[in-house]
Amino acid sequence: MFVKFPEGASNRTDHDAAADVLYDVVIVGAGIAGAIIAARLSEAGKRVLIIEAGPAEDLTLRGYESYLDRFYSATSKDNQSPYPTSLNAPMPLGTDARRIFPGFPDASAYLVQSGPFATDTTYTRVLGGTTMHWEAKTPRMLPEDFRMRTLYGEGADWPLTYDDLAPCYNEAEREIGVSADVEDQAYLGITFDEHYVFPMKGLPLSYLDQMVAKDVDGMPIALDGEQTLLRVRPFPQGRNGIPNPAYDGGRGYVPRGAVSTYQVEVGGRCQGNNNCVPICPVQAKYNAGKTLAAALRSGRVDLIAQAVAHKVHIDEETGRVREIEYRRYERPDSADWTTVRARARLFVLAANAVENPRLMLASGLRSSSGLMGRNFMDHAYLLAWALLPEVAGTFRGTNCTGGISDLRGGRFRRRQAAFAVDIHNDGWGWARGAPMTDLMDLVDNGGRYGEALRQGLVDRVSRQLQLAFMVEVPADSSNRISVDPAFTDHLGNMRPILSYDIPDYTMRGIAYARQLSKRIFARLGAEDYTNYDPNFWGYATYEGQGYEVRGGNHLAGTHMMGVDPSTSVVDADQRSWDHRNLYMVGGGSLPTVGTSNVTLTIAALCLRSARAMLTQLDTEQAPIRLTADGAVQTQLEEVGA
Amino acid sequence: MTPSTINSRADLISYLDAALALEHATIPPYLTAYYSIHSTANSDAAHIIRVVAVEEMLHLTLVANVLNAVGGSPDLTRPGFVPSYPACLPDGEDDFTVDLRPFSPDAVETFCKIERPRKAPDAGARLVRFGTDKPMLAASPTAEGIRFYSIGEFYEEIVEGIERLAVADPGLFCGDASRQVGPEYFYSGGGTIIPVRDLDSARRALRFVAAQGEGLDSGLYDADGELAHYYRFRQLQFGRYYQQGDDPDWPSGPGLDVDWRRVFNAKVSARLSDYPAGSELAAAAEAFNADYGMFLDLLTRAFNGEPNLLQEAVVFMFRLRDGFNRLLRNPLPGSDGLHAAPTFEVTVPEAVMS
Question: Which structural domains are found in chain B, ordered by start?
Fold first, then answer.
């Protein structure tokens, strides 16, 4: 079933008129976090305004296909290649990353990097946010990820447990439309409600996964006195598969297809294309446009796009947010803008873990804990690549269908970082640019053409195996987002500055990952081609060994949640300790990033927060009178706290 | 009231065999038009044709389910299953032929005729006598020289036949339930596969097939809010999408762009004999036909107790797509710049037939 986007919804709200409306909630950002909150609050009858930095264009099938065309014709197939870049709402590109030399921050791209470690981490500023380019892996966090400090003396504890969040995980899996089988996903303490099934049946392992599994399944690992047997396990995926008739007590599940302003029938199921990142050709992969469209259909959600939040204004007396000032631009390349303000009872920053603290810090709001922007986390990716002894069908299937999850948890985490391992169905693409680099080599150095070229390419790429170790990064307050008036963008917004180093804890995990990759390759009889280039922008050394370390776009930690206002920025509801009508939501709230891709957990937390927002809205009654057309008639005053 | 032409299980099975051929016969014309569209052009038109083609595949499967339920065995490899294009479809008094055409106003006109809702003026007019020797789809397989007023009437005849037979023969639905294809195998289109076990499910399956195409009684949209095929195609003629509540003559949804020029202008209903003997292009056309024969064999096996094979069919369809592209993107020598296209002169390889 297609997802209807109401025609004209991206442009129907006049920003001047909206400035006179007192909304129940103003949300900054139309990615998955903002879309989920807008959908839930509008369902409950609340009036919502979303302001979004990206282009004010309806989500139409044709618009989506223009993303695809841009991707197909792009020379660099990086994870932002399908999406339009705008001078006024710039976004980091993976191709921006440069080696950083001590004392010389790299300000050549939107994200200023002061190092010492450079990262290629990105996020997407369009309707739907980074879920447009995400890979759609949706593992839950492990119960132990919520208690890292207590269990392992590393990182931080959450103010929530796995069991607290489990009902929201169920709900998030429905919202995203997750395909998985419970029997594959119940491991390392992850539990499910009795009779729970995922909305759709698990997607099959690729042939490559199965080839790897033949030798890896049952491989014994001894680590910190514990014995583990490895197994190639399917990942849960936010991609449409076969609906499970047993879902929802036998009521089943109807997959949500493409977003469109008119009836289309596409996106019902994954077709196994190999470019989930940066864009699914058929929208079988969830993107937040699906949730956003539902929110806009409520008629209670206004959307103003091409609007970049500029400043959060605080009432000095109460500490509450009074309004958010934003800059509205007419065209992606407009040289000027209009300053507009948005007012509401509650405000929600749902930009992401870089843009949320950037906006707060640019507004002079450092949090009384001093932690605004601090504890930046991402996943550190280590790649290892080899050639299998026989053809394994690499490049068939989606980007990634299976991997090794057995070392996501365990006692060893008191010493070194845990990781999940992806088997990449796109071969050495991430590490070395396959298959394009293979093609160029066969032509330039092999003199191949025609049939011989085609066969040569098949021979080379279909034996490629690339393992991606997604290694956890613990919170470290010196890893942070900051701002500096010396660095501003086209609209005069201060740009984010990232200071980032890979903690030793993570480097120990990385070093172990490399050793493990060698053992796995040996077991597979694969020829190890891994070779880390000292000139690589993300080259990091540990105990005399060098590694290429990449970013994961799993941004987290910059407005961490906690139980104590002096050691956290938001509470367990993602509500700001300092500004009680402000919620900062998304990855920034995560105290640990664990070894889960962050989107599912972000969605679960936002579903939870939406309930807290409704409770707050219903208990705080402000004396506000509205005219028939919704304009505010009296001054805005809040009573109660 | 004309006497029924379905009086026995054998009659019914021959009707369902004909229905299977009918549902399939619309797919090559739709796919030819679909793949003739330049890949970055005419998104609206491509999606409209695509969804109809995909839903014809659903109809094919639904008919196979009914056939299996009454003890038949679907055979997509029998000689004559794939018509020789141009072929006739029933359409009231005036015959028209269905060609394999590139996307064009003529093609859309034909598609509208195929899917046009037509209820016979009275029950007696359902059957029409014909005298042509052209290949005829939805002709009565049991009464020679008789065809139906419309596809909708053809299915009404089958439904009424099944109802009568089911009353007379409680064992009519004797098929092996494991041969039924379930809903897990269909996607990217409206509707779902209905496993057929009894009169009720058979009736639902067949009426769904008729209604999804022509919207016989249900108007523009069916109960699930899905637009009937006929009206989907009409949108291309209006240059505008329908939305709920519209009058059939006044679609009021978003506008729709058609660029008739951004199409590979393939020769209409090309034949293998049009291809220069021994040329690479001829080899590609022959390879396509061989692949298509293998594909029909795969479907036949899937419909005869191995429904899991439908997953392999997905990969096979990508191969057929590549085959379409290989031909449609190349000019056919000696045809004044017209491009090549699959000919659908399908012969099932002997190794497969045994």
Answer: 9-265 (1.20.1260.10)
pLDDT mean by block of 10 residues, chain A; 641 residues: 92 93 97 98 98 94 92 90 92 92 92 95 95 97 98 96 98 98 98 97 96 98 96 98 95 94 87 92 96 97 98 96 97 92 98 98 97 98 97 93 98 98 96 94 95 93 97 97 97 97 98 98 98 96 97 96 98 98 98 98 98 96 50 43 38
CA A610 to chain centre: 19
Instruction: Take residue A37 and report the two structure tokens written for it.
Output: 């909150």
Overall domain count for chain A: 1
Residue of B nearest to A204 (CA): B311
Q: How far is B166 from chain A (nearest CA, A)?
A: 30
Domain containing A544 equals 3-619
- Helices B9-25 and B27-36 meet at what angle, rounded to 10? 10
The partner residues of B96 in beta bridges, in order of sequence, read: B89
Cβ contacts (< 8 Å) between A255 and chain B: which residues? 187
Flag whether A632 is in a domain.
Answer: no
Q: Please report the ipTM that was assigned to this predicted complex.
A: 0.84
The DSSP-derived string for A349-390 is E-S-TTHHHHHHHHTT---TTS-TTBS-B-PEEEEEEEE-SS
Q: At A211, which CATH number? A: 3.50.50.60
Domain-embedded: residue A232? yes
Cα–Cα distance between A285 and A400 in angstroms, integer?
A: 13
Instruction: Evaluate the omega torsion of the peptide bond into residue B170 and state whether it is cis, within 30 degrees of 0.
Output: no
Distance from CA of B312 to the nearest CA of A (A): 12
Burial category of A196 from C-beta neighbours within 10 Å (exposed 0-12, middle 13-18, buried 19 and up): middle
SS3 call for B240: strand
- Please tell me the distance in Å from B154's CA to the nearest CA on chain A: 27
Decide if A625 is inside a domain: no
Task: Report which of A109, A117, A99, A106 is spatially closest to residue A476, judged by C-alpha positions.
Answer: A117
* Rounded Cα–Cα distance for residues A460 and A481 (Å): 42
Q: What's the token pair of residue A465?
A: 């195996």
Contacts of A265 in chain B (CB under 8 A): 47, 50-51, 54-55, 188-190
Q: Annotate A254-264 with b (16+ C-beta within 10 A) or e (fewer).
A: ebbbbbbbbbb
Q: H helices of A476-581, where?
A: 504-524
In this structure, what token pair is assigned to residue A420? 């999940």
Contacts of A267 in chain B (CB under 8 A): 188
Question: Is there a cis peptide before residue B86, judged by omega within 30 degrees of 0?
Answer: yes
